[in-house]
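Dear support,

I submitted the protein below through the web form. The confirmation email said the job was done, but the results page showed an empty box. After a refresh the structure appeared. I'm attaching both so you can tell me whether what I see now is the final result or a partial one.
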Amino acid sequence: MCKRKLGVGLAAGAILGFLISCSNPQATGIKTSDNTLRNELSAKSQNTVWTKDIEGERLNAKLNQFINIADKNLMSPQLVQSIKGVTAPVYPQIKELASLDTSSMNSILLNSVKEFCDALKDGTEGLSPYFDSEYFFNYVFFKNDLKEVWQTELKSGEKLFDRFVICSAFEGDELIQVPVRFYKGKEYIDLSIFLSYHVGYKINQIEIIRWGKLNGETEKQQ
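What the results page shows now:
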């Protein structure tokens, strides 16, 4: 009776062991699809000839390795912005006239010149309020001189000039000289406006420097 029970127990144990081994592939050494892909990738990687990095040394080197800059002085967005703040801006200039930098001009002076130039664009009439009363005769001279050198018959509603550019001022003890270039199509004329301060900036005199055409054509000087 005991032998029969022992035989039944051994048979049950064998069946249970077989079932456990089937549920655990690793125990039986069966290869899964994951293991197969991993082995294939490893084999291909070992058999592949890889190229070297282009300029690998430079890409992996420190930024300051080839230039004499300390680590603490490496450029940063904040440092670049601060350099821009202290660097003086570069302004263009009109050849043989002056720089276009008006940043240092008194704002009242600049506005006074601009108002006069805006009025002159429409014509030479009605400009007397911009002149010093003591030099009113210079206003008359300027009108006549401009009419001789700038012989333009204006149509109804047509402006004398299209636009103008104010240049950097030359300030003396009593007089301030402001060069201005006026444009009309491809033609231009350069003026020097002399002003002094008497309860506001007033014009003493206007000189015609030169006039001509753009694109390198011959210029004329007064």
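Response: this is the final, complete result; the empty box was a page-load delay. Confidence is low (pLDDT under 50) at residues 1-8, 26-30.
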